[in-house]
Design brief:
The protein is α/β, with parallel strands linked by helices. The protein is built from 13 helices and 16 strands. It holds the Pfam family Peripla_BP_2.
Length: 311
């Protein structure tokens, strides 16, 4: 069975452009304090959907409707109280055997009862997917929605999680380490694309996604965002750019499922592309590339991409 990009993102995938000054804190008397202060009073944040999110005190228990939440919490040494994406159980993240509660239900239609049973202080979801759950979730705990547009947003979100959970030092160390890794990248002249979908219904990560913006740091990535950060393209449009390297995300189930590259191989236009002719269509970890979107996940993206672009 082949999944759509939207369904794959449910395995998936998000983040928010947090900038300095976007969050404010407020102590119990109502006096404003600097964002990220160490007080234990209330604070109000504005999430990526533009909603004000009020927190009554320190955040210790977080339920994750999106994988970027799990990713950031693992970076600062915290286990979520609940998860939605099965990728959370991968050894590279929380791993199996934890006491996290699984949040069941369809993508954007998650079972709020599962969230409630985890007794969270805060729930983190994906803007554009979980907006409709806000009223129900906020009967349980505040809901913070995120929406990633770049790898820098992923780093900013990590720092925000550190502020909210009192793990600023851990978050800062992980953030600086990732920023330094990106700064140390040696740019190449190779043109590349991260793509997904089906023949006749293809999409690419534009430069306004964490993966696309990251690949733009190490190679030529001529995929500007259109109305949607994940742009729909045809084989002919990809062939017109003629990428040197294609990173293919195959969303399918079953051990005998055919790869995206395999499904495209019979297309004569595809076969003429440089990446296809030189056997540089690389099947990558679709779960990580599509749904992780935090600094752990983006580090794994670099692990796969850099050898292909700099080797």
């Amino acid at each position: 069975m082949t999944l759509t990009r939207a369904a794959a993102l449910a395995l998936t995938a998000v983040l928010l452009p947090v900038v300095a000054g976007c969050a404010s804190t407020e102590d119990a008397t109502g006096d404003a304090g600097p964002a990220g202060s160490a007080d234990t009073g209330a604070r109000t944040l504005t999430d990526d959907a533009g909603a004000e999110v009020s927190l009554e005190g320190p955040v210790e228990r977080i339920a994750c409707l999106t994988m970027i939440c799990v990713d950031a919490l693992v970076e600062v040494g915290i286990t979520p109280v609940a998860y939605r994406d099965q990728l959370a159980l991968d050894d590279r993240y929380v791993g199996p055997g934890s006491d996290m509660r699984e949040i069941t239900g369809g993508f954007g239609e998650e079972n709020v009862e599962d969230v409630a049973l985890s007794e969270p202080d805060l729930v983190i979801g994906l803007s554009g997917a979980h907006d409709g759950l806000r009223e129900a979730v906020e009967e349980v705990a505040p809901l913070y929605l995120v929406d990633p547009r770049s790898w820098q947003d992923s780093v900013a979100f990590l720092r925000l999680v550190g502020e909210l959970t009192g793990t600023e030092d851990e978050a800062e160390a992980a953030a600086v380490a990732f920023e330094q890794r990106v700064a140390d990248l040696e740019a190449t002249g190779l043109t590349t694309v991260s793509m997904f979908g089906e023949p006749g219904s293809l999409g690419v990560d534009s430069v306004e996604t964490p993966v696309g913006s990251l690949l733009a740091e190490v190679g030529d990535y001529p995929w500007p965002a259109a109305a949607d950060a994940f742009a729909n393209v045809s084989v002919e449009q990809v062939a017109e750019v003629d990428p040197d390297v294609v990173f293919a995300q195959t969303f399918s189930s079953g051990s005998d499922a055919e790869s995206l590259a395999g499904r495209l191989a019979q297309d004569p236009v595809w076969a003429r592309m440089t990446a296809a002719r030189e056997d540089r269509v690389v099947e990558v970890d679709a779960g990580v590339w599509a749904t992780g979107r935090g600094t752990i996940s983006l580090g794994l993206v670099l692990d796969e991409a850099v050898p292909e672009l700099q080797g």
